[in-house]
Every structure is written in structure tokens, then in C-alpha cells.
């Protein structure tokens, strides 16, 4: 009764799945590569060449070598099969791109919020510096104050000298 399966102090062992294990990320990347190729001019050129070769072979070849006579049912079946796989692969690729775009948009939004916060902080700091500079004596202000003092001293010296001249 106290077997391995009934122990509560250990997790249950994982059951092996009869299905093969697959990596969804690897499958997604492969499907994106295929979808990118399906959207190129190279794919259209290869597909056009394939269809033209198929139709030419099954039209111009001797009867015993033709494997898909007119109305080309096998070609139609192959093109339908290709289309039935292409559409989901393209959709999967678009979903993955939308997910990447959403992540990038969120990252950009956060970066913009940080930039705005930094800008507001710097604006407040500059305003504080300007307010502080309004109370700080500048070189021009100090020079003008010294000039006023020198002028007052010169006037003060000149006034007693005149009064002494008058007294004589």
C-alpha cells in the first residue's frame, strides 16, 4: 500500500506522451521562413515555371508518358493542397509579427514614459536653477555696485576737500 505512486512527499512522475514533442518556437520560425518565401517574386517565378512545365509535359508528351491529362486534376489537387498549407502558415506568421509588434510597442511606450519623466525632471531643475540665479550676484551686477561705491567714495573725498578750501 505504501508504493511509489501513493507517496505524498514526492511529485508524481511525468507520464510520457505518445505524441512527439515539438518546439512551438522552432515551428513558428520555420513557418515564418516559408511564409516569407511564399511572398517573393522568386516563388511566383518558380511556381509559374512548374505549372507551365506540368501543362506542357501533359499536353505535348506522348500519350504513354502523360500522367495528368487535361483537365489536369492532379495539378489542381496539388495547387489546392499548396494553398491550404500556405494560408495557415501566412496567418501564423502574421500572428507572430503582431505579437512582436505588440512587444515593441509596449517597450517604446515605456521608453517614451521614461523620456517624458526625464524631460519633466530636467525642466523642474532648470526652473530651480533660473530661480536660484535670480538671487545670485552676477559679475555685471557686482561691477556696477563697485562702480557706484567708487563713485560715492570719490564724491565723498571731493566734498571734504572743497569744504577745507572754503575754510581757508
Order of helices and strands: HHHH
Shape: elongated
Mean pLDDT: 87
Number of continuous helical runs: 4
Kindly estimate the percentage of residues that lie in beta strands according to DSSP. Answer: under 5%
Number of E-state strands: 0
| Major sheet attributes | none
Q: Short summary of the structure?
A:
With 168 residues, the protein is mainly alpha-helical.
Would you mind describing this structure in some detail?
InterPro entries: DUF1003. This is DUF1003 domain-containing protein. Keywords: Membrane, Transmembrane, Transmembrane helix. The chain crosses the membrane at residues 43-60, 72-92. Residues 1-11 have a biased composition (Basic and acidic residues). The model has no long low-confidence stretch (mean pLDDT 87). Helix content is 76%, strand content 0%. It has two domains: 23-136; 137-168. It has helices at 24-38, 41-60, 73-135, 139-167. The longest helix is centred in the middle third of the chain and has 63 residues, at 73-135. With 168 residues, the protein is mostly helical. The chain is elongated, with a radius of gyration of 44 Å. It has four helices and no strands.
